[in-house]
Design brief:
Layout (H helix, E strand, L loop, with lengths): L1 H13 L2 H19 L4 H13 L4 H26 L8 H12 L3 H36 L2 H18 L4 H15 L2 E2 L6 E2 L13 H20 L17 H23 L6 H14 L12 H23 L6 H12 L6 H6 L1 H22 L3 H5 L6 H20 L3 H18 L5 H23 L11 H26 L10 H9 L1
Antiparallel strand pairs: 1-2
Helix pairs in contact: 1-15, 2-4, 2-15, 3-4, 3-13, 4-5, 4-6, 4-12, 4-13, 4-15, 5-6, 5-12, 6-10, 6-12, 6-15, 7-8, 7-11, 7-19, 7-20, 8-19, 9-17, 9-18, 10-11, 10-12, 11-12, 17-18
């Protein structure tokens, strides 16, 4: 009840004309930068940080929170329409969302993403207000072995579930892990896979990888096939979700929220793992699993809900522990320190008005984003009516601008082209893209947690097995890896070859053809 009272007091502070204006400015800027690949909310907040020191801290934080949430909304727009994730957390949305757009259902994909984001953001923010101390206590109890096990679940799940065969999935994962370890080893200081190129010493930014594989790879693939097939204008379709779309979306929205918030609240969490786990879950539970890979609305609704619930969860360790789990949260903490506040557990005791006004502003910003994005869904979808040569020329321009903006190095443009060619090859031979991206994002983190676990145990492999959370993760991995063998044995026991026997060969033949 104390939390509810504090939250109501926060609403009393945020519902003023100036604070509402800053919330509107924040969500508008956030949506715009989310649409541009490579820009992102973190860079925007960093650029605006010097300007905001002349504002009241509460107003600046309200604007920053609007930019943070708006970036999540905007990133899904380009993922769905142009197969170009504006943020790494929007990578999963591109898998089904872009297929829906190409099938003339872009507006439905945008609508389920916007509504799912609103529902997940609202539930996540409410959970933030109610269970912050308990979630923080659980997150702090997890050690390096648990984080390592969670990331192994992501690796195995992404490789085993996606693509026409497990071999292709694991091949894509290994490529991603190889890209992820490029740079200087943080333990030994040795350079790995840099080939003497100084610009590779810091590694390859995940935004450059995602934009290159998705945007440039897609543009090259389309260009290669335009000679065989004339450019066509993709229809927009009906502007709103039908009854069947609502029926298929509401459960993924809730399940995605359940995945996103706890992972966002973990001190080493993030939106990438829950969005991907949400996609896997919806693919397993859907009664129309044959639509996945062709434009299933559940594959958009669940990951987008997980994405925004994770954004709310990110504020738990930021506000309660002073521990940022992503770049945007880190810059917001830097802003708090610049204003003379001390981030951490004492922040809620010493500055309760600031904290609860920020939490209340998340509800306001989330509502503004829904009112802003839902009516614009049909208008955004009309981008697909631009002829493809002009459309993909624009995509390449913004992709190049976004990749260059990450480090302001011309070398990144050459990397972008090389990664685009890699994306083209992946499409040619039927390798799934998502395991590669998962490997790039989580590979360095998994290496860090795994080596930390081994260091604590003196090199003993038992150090990789921690508490109950790690045991559950390893049980899930064993189940995923052994299930096809069990199903095949059960099928032979019934006198057949099993339900999945021989399913890879036709897919491989079709891809190679």
């Amino acid at each position: 009840m104390d939390n509810f009272g504090n939250l109501l007091e926060g609403f009393g502070h945020v519902l003023t004309p100036m604070n509402l204006l800053f919330a509107l400015i924040g969500v508008t800027i956030g949506t715009a930068v989310g649409v541009l690949p490579g820009i992102g909310p973190a860079m925007t907040v960093a650029l605006l940080l010097p300007v905001t020191y002349g504002l009241e801290p509460t107003q600046a934080l309200i604007m920053f929170a609007g930019i943070f949430y708006g970036g999540m909304y905007g990133g899904s727009t380009t993922s769905i329409l142009l197969n170009t994730p504006g943020e790494s957390s929007s990578v999963v949305t591109a898998i089904e969302g872009n297929k829906m757009a190409k099938a003339g259902r872009a507006a439905q994909a945008l609508a389920t993403a916007a509504i799912g984001s609103f529902i997940a953001g609202t539930i996540g923010t409410l959970a933030l207000a109610l269970v912050m101390p308990q979630v923080v206590k659980f997150a702090v109890s997890l050690g390096a072995p648990e984080y390592f096990a969670i990331m192994l679940v992501a690796f195995v799940g992404a490789s085993a579930v996606l693509g026409s065969s497990r071999i292709r999935g694991f091949a894509a994962l290994l490529i991603g892990l190889a890209i992820g370890i490029i740079g200087i080893d943080k333990v030994t200081g040795q350079q790995r896979l840099t080939f003497g190129v100084a610009q590779l010493a810091d590694g390859i930014d995940v935004v450059v990888v995602a934009v290159g594989i998705f945007a440039v790879g897609e543009a090259l693939w389309v260009a290669a096939h335009l000679r065989r097939k004339a450019a066509t204008v993709i229809p927009v379709g009906r502007p709103w979700m039908g009854r069947d779309d609502w029926r298929r979306s509401w459960k993924p929205w809730l399940r995605g929220t359940a995945f996103g918030f706890p992972f966002g609240a973990l001190p080493a969490g993030g939106a990438e793992i829950p969005t991907f786990l949400s996609y896997m879950t919806e693919r397993r539970l859907s009664k129309r699993s044959e639509e996945f890979g062709k434009g299933a609305i559940e594959g958009v609704a669940g990951p987008e809900a997980a994405n925004n619930a994770s954004a709310a969860g990110t504020l738990v360790p930021m506000l309660a522990l002073g521990l940022p789990t992503n770049a945007t949260a880190a810059i917001m903490l830097a802003a708090l320190q610049g204003w003379g506040f001390e981030p951490g557990p004492l922040l809620m005791e010493k500055q309760p008005v600031l904290v609860w006004t920020l939490v209340a502003s998340l509800f306001i910003g989330n509502t503004m984003l829904l009112l802003l994005n839902l009516p614009l869904a049909p208008a955004w979808a009309k981008l697909l009516q631009i002829p493809r040569p002009y459309l993909y020329a624009g995509i390449l321009f913004f992709a190049s601008m976004g990749a260059y903006a990450v480090n302001a190095q011309p070398f990144d443009l050459f990397l972008l082209l090389g990664l685009g060619l890699l994306g083209f090859v992946l499409r040619r031979f039927g390798l799934p893209v998502l395991p590669l991206i998962i490997g790039v994002i989580l590979g360095p983190l998994a290496e860090l947690q795994g080596r930390r676990s081994l260091q604590l145990s003196g090199g003993d492999l038992d150090g990789l097995v921690g508490g109950p959370v790690a045991w559950v993760c390893y049980a899930v991995i064993a189940l995923v890896l052994l299930w096809p063998l069990v199903a095949k044995v059960r099928g032979r026991g019934r006198g057949g070859d099993g339900p999945g026997a021989g399913s890879d060969a036709p897919a491989a033949t079709e891809v190679m053809a």
